[in-house]
Amino acid sequence: MSKPSASKPSLFRSARVFAALSDETRLRLVVALCAGGAMSIAQLTGGTDISRQAVTKHLQVLAEAGLVRDLKAGRERLWEFEPAQLDEARRSLDAIAQQWDQALLRLKAFVED
C-alpha cells in the first residue's frame, strides 16, 4: 500500500498560507475578496476602522503567500483572491489526514491482535 505524502516544498508553501490566514484581519480580507470579487483598498476599508496603510500591509502578506494578487485598472489598484495556493494547502492537509488515518488503522490492528 502506498503512503500519501505531501512534498516538502508543498508543505512549506502551505505553511505560508496558514500563517497568512492566521490573522483575523487578513482572513476577513480574503472573505471579502471571495464574496465581492476584485476590490480596491478604499472598498476593503469602507465601513471599518482599519487604515488603508494597514490593509495594504495585510494584502502584501497575503500576496506573498500567493492568496491575492493586484491588478491595475487605470489609476486604480484592485485586489483579487487567488485560490490556487489555498487549494494546494487543502491538498496538503488531506495528505496529512490520510497519513494519520493509516497510522490509526495500524495501531488499531496492532492492539486488536
List keywords for this structure.
12% strand; single chain; three-stranded antiparallel beta sheet; elongated
User: Compute the gyration radius: what is it?
Assistant: 19 Å
Residue share in helix? 55-70%
Strand-residue fraction? 5-15%
Give the strand order of the largest sheet, numbering strands 1, 2, ... along the chain. 1-3-2
- Low-pLDDT windows of residues: none
Q: How many helices?
A: 5
Secondary structure tally: strands: 3
Largest sheet: 3 strands, antiparallel
**Looking at the structure, what is the overall shape?**
elongated
Q: Structural class, please? A: alpha+beta
What is the CA-CA span between the terminal residues?
A: 20 Å
Order of helices and strands: HHEHHEEH
Mean pLDDT: 86
Describe what this molecule looks like in 3D.
This protein has 113 residues and is α+β, with helices and mostly antiparallel strands. It is 65% helix and 12% strand. The protein is built from five helices and three strands; from the N terminus they run H-H-E-H-H-E-E-H. It has helices at 8-21, 24-36, 41-45, 52-64, 84-112, and strands spanning 39-40, 68-73, 76-81. It has a three-stranded antiparallel β-sheet. Helix 1 packs across helix 5 (84-112) and helix 2 crosses helix 4. It is elongated and about 70 Å long.
Précis, in short:
With 113 residues, this protein is an alpha+beta fold.
Secondary structure layout:
Blueprint: H1 8-21, H2 24-36, E1 39-40, H3 41-45, H4 52-64, E2 68-73, E3 76-81, H5 84-112
Antiparallel strand pairs: 1-3, 2-3
Helix pairs in contact: 1-5, 2-4
